Amino acid sequence: MSPDSQMKPHLFKHFALELRGLLFYCASWIVLAIVVGALSGSASAFFLWALDQCTNTRLAHPWLLALLPLAGFAVAWIYLKYGTSVEAGNNLLIDEIHDPKKMIPLRMAPFVLGGTLVSHLFGASVGREGTAVQMGGALADQLTRVFRLTQENRRILLMSGLSAGFASIFGVPLAGALFGLEVLAIGRLRYEALFPCLIAAVAADQVCLLWGAHHTHYVAGVIPALSVWTLTATLIAGALFGLAGMAFARSTHALTAALKHVFPYSPMRALAGGATFALVMWATHADRYLGLGVPVIVESFQHPILPWDFLAKGAATVWSLASGFKGGEVTPLFFVGATLGNVLAPLMHMPIGLFAALGLVAVFAGAANTPIASAVMAVELFGGEIGVYAAAACVMSWLFSGNTGIYKAQRQGDGKWRHRHTLPAPDADPKD
């Protein structure tokens, strides 16, 4: 018998073993990811419904803003008494993925849900992504013990929970899948979790929709044909979006540290911060900067708005988060980006709708260091024609936003760029 004929059964057996292992891997993670998606999508659907109820109640009763300091004090006291193990929120999830230590307590989900609803009921300027991501991660981690997962598989499960939460709260399954891979480290993706994150994100989005949840629809309008000027203008705007994202992230971290120094007792920090915020909002009649601010985001796609909207919303959100109010940063970042794009568009002779759309995704790309997920989100929200513009704006924003972001637990991967000498020094030997 020839050597070739002897090798064929061996190769076939090896291929059969690999195929069986791959099928088992796919089947196992399909089941796990669908369970994660169902849990996260259901939680997000309830959260979106409850958030609408809180927002409508606040709009119907503007006097609720006066109770914001007491509401903040109560939530901070509950967290201090019973929720210190989950107060780190998104950063706790990212840390556990990098360095697994102990399971995420299930209490993270109801704590952040209740805290965020209170924030919105009384008018704090916060978002919703943090809540959905934390609920997704906390619910997903409960499956670790049920299925007796290894540490590596637990990491993948947590990443799936992050993806599911992000996808279901915004209705962007592809961006959600990439968010869970991209948010962990700057300049590095975790491809081993790509399949589970994709399945979990798609499942969560579909389950959320089956529950009757609705997502805001933004219209970018006519997308101009690509030209030298439109691409140049997009790159310039992308750099400015990145600087805005960096300013938001660094301001949030700096003010949080300052207020913690002044008010070491967290309930008192929320009380003082809430009182200051409510007084300023009441004195300036700045209702448009309370809560999510979705109506202003929608408005920014349609016609010119107040040129200081992006600054005011950024300041309101930084103060709210630094004071300790629960929620998230992403929707306020959408607000900052869309309104900044609205201001930049006429200055660069570009369509307002296009630049509002680019700002919406690009400021988030820079602040969260997630350019790929953000560009894909633009395509999911606004259609394929915006793809090149969104990619250019998000990458430029990411480059110009520095090496910090809204998530302090985010690690340094391969970084963003490295300075290399491309020309020899004046006194160097050309042969060297």
UniProtKB/TrEMBL annotation:
Coiled coil (residue ranges): none
InterPro entries: Cl-channel_core, ClC, ClC-type_chloride_channel
Main location: membrane
Sorted UniProt keywords: Membrane, Transmembrane, Transmembrane helix
The keyword Membrane appears for this protein: yes
Cellular localisation: Membrane
Membrane topology: Multi-pass membrane protein
Keyword Transmembrane helix: yes
Residue intervals passing through the bilayer: 21-51, 63-80, 156-181, 226-249, 270-286, 354-374, 386-407
The protein, known as: Chloride/fluoride channel protein
Native organism taxonomy: Bacteria, Pseudomonadati, Pseudomonadota, Betaproteobacteria, Neisseriales
